[in-house]
Design a protein that fits this description.
The protein is an alpha+beta fold and about 150 residues long. It is built from 1 helix and 5 strands, in the order βββαββ.
Length: about 150
């Protein structure tokens, strides 16, 4: 079906720079330099005959980190005391919220029991006479005389 095609490519040529030997460099007068002050100069001959001269790049040194000032023990104690105080306030707030919610729940349960029991009593009292069960409820009118129940 399809036959593979071949492509002709040019041969790969790799150029390596040739360092200049000291015999081919014109000698320059030697100038005394403080050691470590100026980097060494390097020259390289490119394949097309040009000469490139430059300094070797030294790695960049980061700026030294300034020491942090010491923190006083009083400041640390005040900060920790503030954190402890906030934690205690939060705990007390949660405690009062829990107690309030529990009180509301108990109140609702008491109200529910009262309504159910009151409904049961009302049904027993207001049933017709022939349909009453064996439960007996004695209801009388309370009379108060001189702050006493009669």
């Amino acid at each position: 079906m399809n036959e593979p095609t071949t492509h002709h490519t040019a041969p790969l040529v790799v150029h390596h720079p040739t360092p200049i030997t000291p015999a081919t460099i014109h000698a320059a007068p030697i100038v005394p330099i403080q050691p470590g002050h100026n980097p060494a100069v390097t020259s390289v001959v490119l394949p097309d005959g040009r000469i490139v001269t430059g300094y070797a790049a030294a790695p960049a040194q980061p700026e030294p980190i300034a020491p942090k000032p010491a923190v006083s023990r009083t400041a640390v104690n005040v900060a920790l005391g503030g954190v402890g105080f906030l934690a205690a306030c939060g705990g007390l707030l949660l405690l009062t919220t829990f107690i309030t919610a529990l009180t509301a729940l108990i109140t609702q349960l008491i109200t529910l029991a009262t309504v159910l029991f009151g409904g049961f009593v009302a049904v027993q009292i207001f049933k017709p006479a022939g349909a009453k069960s064996g439960n007996t409820f004695h209801i009388r009118k309370a009379i108060f005389k001189r702050n006493r129940f009669q």
